[in-house]
Structure to design on (454 residues):
């Protein structure tokens, strides 16, 4: 397995082997000393002294490697792995890597144990990201009590598994559970409560005659105002490998923040676009945050039949367009607080921020640029029909909207705020291959398969 092999070659397993060899060598030395009658046969007192020295040597050889296992500093980076990752640090059963400009954290254990690993390995990043969120509130006159109130609206109804992760993070990160709740709801509290703006996103999945091998290739743009650019440096790929038999889950989001782009070890994908532009901003209290449900769905479901059933049964708290995919096909779900409609494309699904199903009977024009972005993506898919793979999809997503694509780059979209495509992903569910990007940074390719196999 991937991490076991890494640890065996350059991680904590090596000192333990060294300790065993060292003990054997010392025992051999004392045995030879006994045969030379320089130790065991001189006197009982001398023999006792020799045995005490031997015990001391063994104790030191066992204690020193054990201490090294507790936390391995990032100052001793290892060589890149076969997946192009460079190991930076370990804590308990978690490992932090670097992939280009992006941290990659691979966690394993119970949910609390994974939280502990997350908190220790990303402590400085968590603290810095929280400082940005805190300043965003306090600079506008909000106090901590109000911040906690905003955060609790999104975290109170979370499943215990998610709360256990946060409890574990609080044990090692230096942040309290309450501060981690504020950080988790980062986008919601900063964008909705402070900045009064709405995000805009786009999704495209193609398969069949559009791709070079018939399997699904998907892409996602997550568009936000540039005012939140201080948290761009904290984007992190986190891979959870629970030991309770659930699927492994990978997320790409700012460190500690709500998970909105998720993939699992069974080859499923889920993310969302904002749907409030289509049917309004009504929110229903006492319903779980639908996006929070994504994490549990990825843990629990291994095929689209199960994922589809879970989404069709969910009652959303807000208007979303939820996009899903498996290796063979993709669905898009238009969800209001009172109904849900599933869209099944013919070898292609494209979604932005308007509802396509005509039975919604929505009056008025859709959000600015939503139809244009969808039109541009469909045109690009047709132009590349039969040749789309991950690399070609990256090229499609590199085309800016001003040049006929769907990607924003410091563009004046709404007339009062500058927008950029904050993060992008391209994903092949069949091979578990991910390409990820944050605005003004390069694309990075990561093979998720080995990271799920810890």
């Amino acid at each position: 397995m991937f991490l076991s092999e890494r640890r065996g070659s350059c991680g904590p397993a090596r000192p333990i082997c060294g300790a065993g060899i060292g003990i054997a060598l010392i025992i051999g030395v004392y045995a030879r000393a006994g045969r030379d009658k320089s130790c065991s046969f001189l006197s009982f007192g001398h023999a006792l002294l020799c045995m005490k020295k031997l015990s001391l040597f063994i104790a030191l050889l066992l204690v020193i490697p054990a201490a090294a296992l507790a936390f391995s500093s990032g100052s001793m980076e290892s060589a890149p792995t076969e997946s192009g990752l460079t190991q930076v640090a370990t804590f308990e059963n978690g490992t932090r890597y670097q992939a280009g400009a992006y941290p990659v954290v691979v966690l394993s254990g119970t949910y609390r144990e994974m939280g502990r690993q997350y908190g220790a390995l990303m402590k400085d990043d968590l603290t810095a990201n929280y400082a940005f969120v805190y300043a965003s509130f306090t600079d506008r006159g909000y106090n901590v009590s109000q911040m906690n109130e905003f955060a609790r609206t999104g975290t109170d109804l979370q499943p215990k598994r998610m709360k256990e992760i946060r409890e574990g993070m609080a044990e090692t990160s230096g942040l309290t559970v309450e501060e981690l709740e504020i950080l988790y709801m980062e986008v919601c509290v900063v964008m909705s409560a402070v900045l009064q703006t709405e995000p805009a996103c786009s999704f495209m999945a193609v398969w069949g005659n559009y791709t070079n091998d018939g399997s699904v290739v998907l892409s996602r743009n997550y568009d936000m105002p540039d005012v939140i650019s201080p948290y761009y440096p904290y984007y992190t790929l986190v891979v959870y490998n629970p030991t309770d038999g659930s699927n492994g889950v990978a997320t790409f989001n700012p460190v500690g923040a709500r998970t909105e782009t998720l993939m699992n070890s069974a080859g499923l994908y889920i993310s969302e676009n904002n749907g409030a532009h289509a049917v309004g901003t009504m929110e229903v209290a006492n319903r779980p945050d639908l996006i929070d449900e994504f994490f549990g769905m990825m843990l629990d479901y291994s095929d689209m039949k199960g994922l589809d059933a879970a989404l069709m049964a969910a009652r959303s708290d807000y208007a979303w367009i939820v996009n899903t995919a498996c290796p063979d096909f993709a669905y898009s779900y238009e969800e209001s607080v009172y109904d849900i409609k599933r869209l099944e494309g013919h070898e292609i699904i494209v979604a932005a921020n308007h509802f396509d199903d005509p039975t919604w009977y929505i009056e008025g024009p859709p959000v600015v640029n939503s139809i244009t972005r969808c039109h541009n993506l469909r045109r690009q898919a047709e132009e590349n029909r039969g040749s789309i793979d991950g690399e070609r999809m990256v090229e499609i997503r590199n085309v800016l909207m001003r040049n006929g694509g769907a990607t924003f780059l410091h563009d004046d979209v709404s007339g009062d705020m500058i927008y950029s495509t904050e993060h992008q992903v391209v994903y092949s569910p069949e091979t578990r291959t991910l390409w990820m990007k944050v605005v003004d940074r390069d694309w990075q390719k990561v093979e998720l398969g080995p990271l799920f196999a810890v």
Q: What stands out?
A: The first strand starts at residue 71 and ends at 72. The CA atoms of residues 321 and 334 lie 5 Å apart. The chain has a mean pLDDT of 82. The radius of gyration is 26 Å.
